[in-house]
């Protein structure tokens, strides 16, 4: 494959815009295609928790999770909820999801693969932020996990596997936690700090800045909804949009949760699902964490952003079309109030912002990064689930390497779209 191809990148989220930057660096001509504005509220990138957690290597499904499925169906407000009306459609994905975490060996395989993808991600993002003129949006200052007891940590398979794949951390007892986080509720008595991790202070603004950097570097942005890919034999000739065709030599499908219909247009039926996520943000909060933090009991990240204190987490399986259940965002708010007792209980509604969006998720917790079966002119880069923002930096580099026919910098077999075909 030669350099200088015309590459159409479908999706201007974190993965798409970084793929554009890296493809331009390789000498390709780039057209970004997205119906929305990069970094806009419609995008999963906008509502991200803001963690650049290079240690997020554990997939959602772990051994024994199948025992919890009845509870997920019965509790619409739990950490993972499944709407009854969507269950028949979601069932094939859910079966693959449960099987992917059936044994510790399967989870370990994913942990090693994700470690390759995420290692050094905060550094890669910092360099990109500097290039885009927004270095202040990416901080490499570690993140904290807090637990009600040491036992909650010791009994967590995820931390045993993190150690196995090379993640290091510092442990804190109750007194050390109080010194670092005086506003945190005293029920938390044990913590760990992962110093290699970082955070983004405004994911939406960061993605918008990266998109502007791509445009300033020569990319073109077309506001249109892509509906398919057009082949002539095994050669790509165009991306089909609702407003017409865009001729190109290569394409990248980085449309997040909306990628499924695009892959289907060339015969690749992939088990992509949306893990619907929510966040709540308190503007000008009176209290909160000094560092970015995840609470093990709430399954929730609390992170300072430039717009306020954001809490994000939990999963809802209900498809792309169902209306939001805003009670799930209210639960995140209530968790924040519980974690930080100095936050007032009567915060005006005008200072509480809620958001809902779609995480693009493959059942085994690993994204699809690789060529389409239909043509090596088509590269897939979607399905990052809970690691979309942190994983986007290396994914963009891998996309550019695939477009240029260069050896990828990490093994891509664990991420091959063909693992489901």
UniProtKB/TrEMBL annotation:
Species the sequence originates in: Bradyrhizobium zhengyangense
Protein name: FAD-binding oxidoreductase
Residue ranges of every copy of the FAD dependent oxidoreductase domain listed in the record: 6-402
A Pfam family recorded for this sequence: DAO
Presence of the UniProt keyword Ribonucleoprotein in the record: no
InterPro entries from the UniProt entry: FAD-dep_OxRdtase, FAD/NAD-bd_sf
Keywords: Oxidoreductase
Keyword match Oxidoreductase: yes
Top-level division of the source organism's lineage: Bacteria
Gene3D superfamilies: D-Amino Acid Oxidase, subunit A, domain 2, FAD/NAD(P)-binding domain
């Amino acid at each position: 494959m030669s350099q200088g191809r015309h590459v159409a990148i479908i999706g201007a989220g974190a993965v798409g815009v970084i793929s554009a930057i890296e493809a331009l660096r390789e000498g390709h001509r780039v057209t970004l295609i997205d119906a929305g504005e990069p970094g806009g509220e419609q995008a999963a990138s906008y509502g991200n928790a803001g963690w650049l957690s290079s240690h997020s290597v554990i997939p959602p499904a772990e051994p024994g999770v199948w025992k919890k499925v009845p509870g997920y169906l019965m509790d619409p407000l739990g950490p993972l909820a499944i709407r009854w009306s969507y269950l028949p459609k979601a069932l094939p994905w859910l079966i693959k999801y449960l099987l992917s975490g059936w044994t510790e060996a399967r989870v370990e395989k994913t942990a090693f693969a994700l470690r390759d993808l995420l290692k050094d991600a905060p550094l890669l993002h910092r360099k990109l932020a500097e290039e885009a003129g927004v270095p202040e949006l990416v901080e490499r200052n570690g993140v904290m996990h807090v637990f009600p007891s040491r036992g909650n940590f010791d009994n967590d398979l995820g931390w045993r596997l993190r150690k196995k794949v090379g993640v290091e951390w510092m442990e804190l007892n109750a007194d050390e936690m109080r010194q670092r986080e005086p506003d945190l509720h005293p029920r938390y008595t044990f913590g760990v700090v992962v110093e290699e991790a970082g955070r983004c202070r405004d994911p939406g603004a960061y993605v918008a800045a990266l998109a502007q950097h791509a445009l300033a570097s020569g990319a073109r942005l077309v506001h249109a909804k892509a509906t398919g890919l057009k082949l002539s034999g095994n050669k790509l000739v165009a991306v089909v949009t609702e407003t017409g065709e865009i001729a190109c030599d290569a394409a990248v499908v980085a449309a997040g949760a909306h990628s499924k219909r695009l892959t289907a247009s060339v015969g690749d039926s992939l088990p992509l699902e949306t893990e619907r996520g929510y966040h709540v943000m308190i503007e000008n909060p009176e209290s909160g964490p000094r560092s970015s933090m995840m609470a093990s009991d709430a399954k929730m990240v609390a992170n300072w952003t430039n717009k306020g204190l954001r809490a994000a987490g939990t999963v809802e399986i209900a498809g792309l079309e169902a209306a939001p259940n805003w009670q799930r965002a209210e639960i995140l708010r209530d968790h924040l109030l519980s974690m930080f007792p100095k936050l007032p209980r009567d915060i005006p509604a005008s200072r509480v912002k809620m958001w809902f969006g779609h995480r693009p998720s493959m059942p085994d917790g690993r994204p699809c990064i690789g060529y389409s079966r239909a043509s090596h002119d088509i590269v897939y880069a979607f399905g990052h689930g809970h690691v979309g923002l942190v994983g986007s930096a290396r994914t963009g580099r891998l996309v550019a390497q695939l477009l240029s026919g260069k050896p990828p910098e990490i093994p891509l077999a664990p991420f091959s779209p063909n693992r489901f075909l």
